[in-house]
Automatic annotation (TrEMBL):
It holds the Pfam family Glyco_tran_WecG. CDD domains: Glyco_transf_WecG_TagA. The keyword Repeat does not apply. GO terms for molecular function: hexosyltransferase activity. Signal peptide: none annotated. This is WecB/TagA/CpsF family glycosyltransferase. The keyword Glycosyltransferase applies. Coiled coil: none annotated. It comes from Eiseniibacteriota bacterium.
């Protein structure tokens, strides 16, 4: 059972960005894809912990309702804008980020980096058949990719200790966790120090996309910020609550914050002008 004490917090051995901004109480790192990959490469080479969280509207809303999820996100060393709505909202609230750095695109860039550098990769999560197909495809795409372990996500709570030990024994440089939210964030925050893996990231359903079981939105829809709509059309029963309700809540939060900022700015007193020449 996870509690606040089990969540790992940033230590001197981590690589938290000094330039991160606040997005409705959630940290956000204003990095590009190139910058994010460079930080990950640095973390692996220096053997320092770097845990990534991909932030979207649904997850940000969830952090308001789940204190453990909120603490796990706040303690992550790298938080990027996964959703286009996050990029737009950050700009509207005066905390702009340079671009969208999605989890699935970052995963692809990290795997390409691993293939070039010879970094060891471990995947955790998804169904066994999805894992097998995804690993096979990744090895076709990157013939030099060194996948040192892959465990499905359908284990019992009693088996979690064995899973953690298996990861530790494999000594990966990169750990990709294909759980949903908040499970992946809480797992990584709770076990980051024990695992000793330089770079960890939650990848959600990305292995399903790699395996060809789920299609990703066309590039045009991604650029328009409509990837959520494409996913909703594919899986309406599973995702309608997440997207319809969460997106409405997120929009409300952003507009209220925008109004608050404008109101506080309007109430600031004008600087007093001294007209007494004797004081000059």
């Amino acid at each position: 059972m996870l509690n606040e004490r089990s969540i790992a917090y940033t230590s001197p051995e981590t690589l938290t960005s000094p330039t991160r901004v606040d997005m409705l109480g959630t940290p956000l790192d204003p990095v590009t894809m190139v910058g994010a990959v460079a930080r990950i490469d640095e973390a692996i080479r220096s053997r320092r912990h770097l845990r990534h969280v991909a932030m979207n509207a649904a997850k940000l809303v969830a952090t308001r309702q789940d204190p453990l999820l909120r603490r796990s996100v706040q303690s992550a060393e790298l938080v990027t804008a996964d959703g286009q709505s996050i990029v737009w909202a950050a700009r509207l609230l005066g905390q702009p980020v340079p671009e969208r750095v999605t989890g699935i695109d970052l995963m692809g860039a990290v795997l390409a980096l691993a293939a070039r550098r010879g970094y060891r990769v471990f995947t955790l999560g998804a169904r066994q058949d999805i894992v097998d197909q995804a690993v096979e495809k990744l090895r076709r795409i990157h013939p030099t990719l060194n996948i040192v372990g892959a465990i499905h996500g359908y284990y019992t709570p009693e088996e979690e200790g064995d899973v953690v030990r298996a990861i530790v024994e494999a000594r990966p440089d990169i750990l990709l966790v294909a759980f949903g939210t908040p499970r992946k964030e809480l797992f990584l925050a709770a076990h980051q120090q024990q695992l000793g893996v330089p770079f960890c990231m939650g990848i959600g359903g990305s292995l399903d996309v790699v395996a060809g079981k789920v299609r990703r939105a066309p590039r045009a829809m991604q650029h328009l910020g409509l990837e959520w709509l494409f996913r909703l059309i594919q899986e309406p029963r599973r995702l309608w609550r997440r997207y319809v309700i969460s997106n409405s809540s997120f929009l409300s939060m952003v507009l209220m914050e925008r109004f608050r900022v404008q109101l506080s700015g309007a109430r600031k007193p004008s600087p007093e002008i001294d007209t007494d020449p004797a004081r000059g």
